[in-house]
Each structure stands twice: as C-alpha cells, then as structure tokens.
Amino acid sequence: MDLYLEVYAGGGEFHSEDRYRRQLSLHMERDGWEMVTASFDGVLVGYIYGFPLPPQTRWWEGIHDPVPPGFTEEDGTRTFALSELLVHSGWRRQGIARVLHDDLVGGRAESRTTLLVRPDNVPAQMAYRSWGWRRVTTLQPAWPRSPVFEVLVRTTDRRRPPSPNRSAVSSYRTGA
C-alpha cells in the first residue's frame, strides 16, 4: 500500500488508499491472480499484478466505441488483465519495470494481455509501446471520479522465457 500511495501521491480520490484497498482485495480473489515483486535489501521497490479475465468479466464495462467485433468476449482463458505496474520513484529508469513486466506477461497461456493506461502518462505509454503493446480504444471504469484510460493489448509471445535478471524479483501466485 505504501508503494502505491508513493507512486500516486497527489492523484486525487481515484488513487485513494480506500479505493485501492477495495480494488486490490477484489482482484486478489480472482482465480489465477498473480503478483511479481522486486525488492532491494528487503525493501519493496516495485510490483506488478494481474489475472485472467473470466467469462462474465466487468473489466470491459465503460469501453468506448469503436472496438473490433468480439473484442470484449471472454472465456476465462483468452485475456490476461495487467492491473498494476509500479516502481518506486527512486528506482525508476533501471529496467525494473521491464523485468517485472516480462516475468509476469512473458509466456502466459492466454492469447493476449490487456491493460489500461492514462493518455497523459507519457513514460508508461512509451515503455508499453516499446514492449509490443498497441492501443485499441479508450475506457472509463465505473469507479467514482475515474479518469479515461487508453486500452492497450499485447499478443502473448509464448516463446519468450522470463527475464534472466531476476535477482530481486519474486512471484506470488494464487488461484488456479
């Protein structure tokens, strides 16, 4: 929680501790929820988490047209949703986000991965695009005071092994 609040300091009510605790609690209950963390000398410096989208997911609620036919149809094995990728400000620009990303997303069984990113988050936009993500449309979640996000999608590369630079990265998996 402390890392989330540091990364989103001044982010307004949408990035409040209360809302994020509720979100995290709901997400952790999802089958297949997985988190990968990075730490240095026992201190958490970054994490990423996500989960497979179930058939009756609410993930796509608030999506804006146009979207390709069938884009929001889920069967529990089609799409992995990357929900958060955070790195402490003092540890950025050292490749930690890429290692976390590659460890969680690389080699997934789902055929695609999706995430939501703010249009004004230029560093994240640039990183995701360089990692093979493409923009599909926009979406505004039903959370109160939620911003509009860009919907990015990346096809899963099942041939890519996890990143070899894992000395400070660990995984926590739950569910199926």
Task: Walk me through the structure.
The protein has a seven-stranded mixed β-sheet. It has four helices and seven strands. The chain has 176 residues and is an alpha+beta fold. The longest helix has 12 residues, at 17-28. The model is unreliable at 160-167 and 171-176 (pLDDT under 50).
Write a compact overview of the structure shown.
By secondary structure, the chain is an alpha+beta fold.
* Sheet with most strands: 7 strands, mixed
Strand content: 25-35%
Number of strands: 7
Principal-axis shape equals globular
Mean pLDDT: 82
Taking pLDDT < 50 over at least 5 consecutive residues as the criterion, the unreliable ranges are 160-167, 171-176
Number of DSSP helical runs? 4
**Gyration radius from CA atoms, angstroms:** 16 Å
Cα separation of the termini? 25 Å
Strand order of the largest sheet: 5-6-4-3-2-1-7
- Counting helices, strands and paired strands, the structural category is alpha+beta
This entry's quaternary arrangement is: single chain
What share of the residues lie within helices? 10-25%
Order of helices and strands: HHEEEHEHEEE
